[in-house]
Amino acid sequence: MAFNISNWSIKNPIPTILISLVMALMGYIAFLGLGIDRSPNIDIPAVIITVNQPGAGPEELETQVTKKVEDAVAALGNIDQITSTVNEGSSTTTVNFILGTNSDRATNDVRNAIAQIRQDLPQDTNDPIVQRLEFAGGAVMNYTISSPKRSIAELSDLVDRQIGRALTGVPGVARVDRVGGVDREVRVDLDPGRLIAYGITAAAVNDQIRSFNINLPGGRSEIGGSEQTVRTLGSAETIEDLRNYQISLPNGDTVPLNNLGTVSDSSSDPRQMALLDGQPVVGFSILRGTGSTLVTVETAVRQEIENLKKKLPEDIKFQLIFTRADSIRDSYESLLSDLLIGCLMTVITVGLFLGNWRATIITGLALPLSIFPTFWVMQALNYTLNGMTLLALALALGNLVDDAVCMVEDIDQHLAMGKKPLQAAFDASKEIGLAVLASAAAIMAVFLPVAFMGGVPGQFFQPFGVTVAVSTLFSSLIAVTVTPMLSAYILQPKKLKTGDNPSSRPRFRPYKSLLTWALRHRILTLLAALVFFIGSLQLVPLIPKGLFSSGDTGLSTISLELPPGATLNDTVAVANQVNSLLQKNPAVANVLAIPGDSGRVNTGLIYVNLVPKEQRSLTQRQFEEQTRRDFQKIPGARVTFRAQGGAGSSKDVAIVLKSENGDILTQTAQKLEREMRALPGFVEVSSGVSLVKPEIIIQPDPVRAADQGVSVRAIARTASLALIGDNEFNLAKFNLADRQIPIRVKIANDGRSEIETLQNLRVPSSNGTLVPLNSVATISLGSGPAEIQRFNRQRQVNIGANLEGVSLGSAVTQIRALPIMKNLPPEVTEEPFGDARIMRDIFARFLGALSLAIISIYGILVLLYNNFLYPLAILTSLPLSIGGTLIALLITQKELGLYALIGIVLLMGLVTKNAILLVDFALSGIESGNPQFKAVIDSGVSRLRPIIMTSVSTVAGMLPIALALGADGEIRAPMAIAVIGGFTTSTLLTLVVVPVIFTYIDSFYYWFRGLFVKQKPKSI
What is the helix (H) or strand (E) element at residue 468, kind and residue range? Predict the structure, then answer.
């Protein structure tokens, strides 16, 4: 097929040029419309079930709610893992489904499963909230707003009702979270002494406000011959009206509400704050939706903010604190720069070898004509311009020009024989067409199995592999159509000098001598190659292993954790200490601290925005290592940097221990934590073993409670309403002109700080009287777990650490070698978590996928050559490349991780091309009647130049990436280094070893065939 296409293209230059230009133009238009992202979209379909029961302890929630929820969803299909977090008053279960699961259907299945167990949950729990995980990753960007004329409450309301609503309408925005600020509400702070004096409870006051302060429909009437709607309006119109609302007392009297306490238009008790460089602010974070492109979302949000600036009053000022899109844009521009420099170096290298500007231009045109149509396919497949797809093009530059180089070089050889350019193009395209087709098929055969290996690794491999395969397909198409056509009409004929015999032109004699020696000492040659391969495998334990580096994004994230029981003010104080330490570092641009970020007042999150890389002397990792030591000086708090790995884990390495026996699990986790702290290179070691939280225990006395007709539920509701108010959905509402705000009835804050207030609370009995709480229950101080974590329906503890100078693979190995890990109790099991789990999946899936890829290459070569044996000679080039890859990674001390493995996959396809050229031309020589020895020598000598050209051009195209130039260069470097190292040794060894193996296979094939078919003796 390639031969016919080539002939048609040469004979029809105008249609060939037009088709090529149209494809390139379509690709360029597609390029302009592609989104920009850091990595391929690996958003995992997940559903979150949230059940709230205000005031409930973690242990009660785990038994009464969490376990029932987990059991209900466990029977659903395609579940990857189930994780639950149980805090005071809240149970959150996240169900992660296998990649590719329809998230809408999964959400409906989970919702139906939870609906069936609703009646089994405690009555006072809020209705379970089942929702699909709509946002991907953390905050994309963060703004603060300020105004010299407005209060914190007004700014908070502005974010909630105007800014948030406007930004939620931006395509790709999943959620807008307010940071800091307050929630407006009407507070009814009751005086406990007055409640006792008037003989009424906080619950009774709350119920009366709820029952009266409400507007309800009253039906329809027909008065005066027309129809009217009847409305019952009981809601107070002003705060003053609410203060004067008459509360009915048990003795039949009434009293104004403000006689029982203070009624004010205020805000709820703060559970979170935001501090910018130590000053309180109101801000908001943008979270993008699953499947959206980060840079596209960020750009649209910026545009909407500009629109809001025109609509809002002039005193409202926006300040962008950080955006994750800037680092992605820098990485994108760096990759494009590497791509352009690689193109230039590739073309220059080819030009130096060819020594002909016409041939160089023809070869160079193969790059844009191959790359631009690839963008059109990427758009059709919904890919983005991310680190994987752009890397695929940058690393494949040499490969894209290889086919054109081989075609032009072969045409050049025919021109040297004295042929006209037109005839040389016809003959060369016929001669090399099969080799071009075979090499393209080999590249595609490598990536088809690997690209669809599944799981998170497959999400990285797929766009890379498909991009390389598609661009290779277009490059091969250009090589057999445009390249011979242009050569036929642009190249000039060569004049032969008198007595010049093309067949006797001087060749590279050292190679011919080396190849001749190898063919005469075949056993020694094969033994040397075998020793090199086996020896290179011994380097594997010496090479660091990991997933990938997080790079320098210019944004560091810090976690704060204080002991359970700490107040929000305590967390704010620690956040200010951290801010003071950070502000002393010139690398810091600004610091946004969010105490109470996770919903717990004893935790917090700090975003540290660094100045641009060119303005600081430290990398982000160096800054974190330097600052980490200062954090150790802060007493009574755990201050740690959060990792930025691929799995979203907050630690570089994490291990999960699981068990149903909570006590043994806690003891094992604490022992593992102590042993991990002793390991070198392990810093900020911490475990998820929850510290005990101080509690006040109300223990009802069955006898006294029964005597006075008091139920446990009445005791719990009395205490809950008095201390924190009613459930959110049960709160009475105060009507404003444009919205409703809640009315919260509870004991005043100063009364809640004394245990006597709790003891003297009045509890309603069954006969209508009120009895003191301490007369029917014992009140004491106690403790309980602050948080319970579960993994796959068992209690879990997450033990993690950040790493300094230790690779992820080495860290996992050291952890598994610890005494406690070798002797885990029978009740406890463990498994990797976060990046360690992804790394395990990558290595487990990679070997199987690579084996299938090699089988695919072999199958395609068998079909192309119609022979089962000769493709084996080509495949021997594969193991010859491994040694160079391992040596290069060892010398540069780069990790054998995701990027290096992808480089090895690419290498498998590239190295077969050289072997295909050698075997193809050797077979052509034998078919022409040459002896085996001469055919192999001629094949090696004649193919030396194009092999060296393509190899050097491939290496030259990858040099900018290997040198780690530009943003995120250190992340991409292992891939290029792996390819350069492996391609170098494979090229050198292929030129010698493959011909030797070919002679054995060819001789065996001739002998085996002679057993069944009579044939002339073969000339060796």
Answer: helix 455-480
For residue 503, pLDDT beyond 50 = no
H/E segment holding residue 321: strand 317-323
The helix (run of H) or strand (run of E) holding residue 517 is: helix 509-520
Average pLDDT over residues 848-875: 83
Instruction: Establish how many alpha carbons lie within 13 A of residue 633's alpha carbon, considering only the half-sphere containing its beta carbon.
Output: 8
**Phi, psi values for residue 770, rounded to 5°:** -110, 135
Which residue from 469, 466, 538, 380 is spatially nearest to 30, judged by alpha carbons? 380
Of 31-45, 91-105, 271-285, the least confident: 31-45
Please give the C-alpha separations between residue 571 and each of 131, 638, 771, in angstroms, as whole numbers: 31, 11, 39
- Which of the 8 DSSP states describes residue 866? T
Question: Are residues 148 and 315 in contact, defined by beta-carbon separation less than 8 angstroms?
Answer: yes
List the single range of 3-7, 130-134, 184-188, 299-303 with lowest mean pLDDT: 3-7
Grouping H, G, I as helix, E, B as strand and the rest as coil, residue 800 is strand
Cα distance from N-terminal residue to C-terminal residue, the chain: 33
Specify burial of residue 805 (Cβ count, 10 A radius: 0-12, 13-18, 19+): exposed
Are 70 and 125 within 8 A, CB to CB? no
pLDDT of residue 829: 83
Tell me the CA distances in angstroms from 939 to 479, 518, 771, one per residue in order. Answer: 21, 14, 104
Which run of H or of E encompasses 744?
strand 740-747
Among 613, 614, 596, residue whose Cα is nearest residue 605: 596
Instruction: Quote the tokens at residue 23.
Output: 């494809």
Arithmetic mean of pLDDT, 610-634: 82
Nearby residues of 813 by Cβ (< 8 Å), 6 or more positions away: none
Contact by Cβ (8 Å): 415, 490: no
DSSP β-ladder status, 692-700 and 682-687: unpaired
Q: What percent of the chain has pLDDT over 70?
A: 92
CA distance readout (Å), 766 to 705, 707, 708, 711, 969: 10, 10, 8, 8, 74
Angstrom distances, CA of residue 886 to CA of 383, 883, 981: 31, 5, 8
The pair of three-digit structure tokens given for residue 810, joined into one six-digit string: 């080495």
Separation CA 754–CA 613 (nearest Å): 53
The one-character DSSP state at 263 is E
Residue 456 confidence (pLDDT): 67
| Nearest to 358, CA basis, from 489, 476, 479, 474 | 489
Q: Are 442 and 861 in contact (CB under 8 A)?
A: yes
On the question of pLDDT at 340 being above 60, the answer is yes
Q: What is the pLDDT of residues 752-802, one digit of tens each?
A: 677 777 777 788 887 777 888 778 888 777 777 777 888 888 888 888 888
| Burial grade of 318 (CB within 10 A; 0-12, 13-18, 19 or more) | middle
Backbone φ, ψ for residue 15 (5° rounding): -60, -35
Both structure tokens of 1015: 């044939």
pLDDT at 822 over 50: yes
Q: Residue 995: count other Cβ atoms within 10 Å of its Cβ.
A: 25
- pLDDT higher than threshold 80 for residue 584: yes
The rounded mean pLDDT for the chain is 81
Q: Which residues of 426-450 are buried (b: 16+ CB within 10 A; e: fewer)?
A: bbbbebbbbbbbbbbbbbbbbbbbb
pLDDT of 398 strictly over 70: no
Helix (H) and strand (E) counts in the chain: 36, 31
**DSSP calls for 952-965:** HHHHHHHHHHHTT-
Q: Which of 634, 624, 648 is nearest to 42 (CA)?
A: 648
CA distance 356 to 409: 11
CA atoms of 487 and 365, how far apart (whole Å) = 12
Q: Return the HEC string of 685-735.
A: EEECCCCEEEEEEEEECHHHHHHCCCCHHHHHHHHHHHHCCCCHHHCEEEE
- The residue-averaged pLDDT of 679-707 equals 78
pLDDT for residue 524: 92
Confidence of residue 906 (pLDDT cuts 50, 70, 90): confident
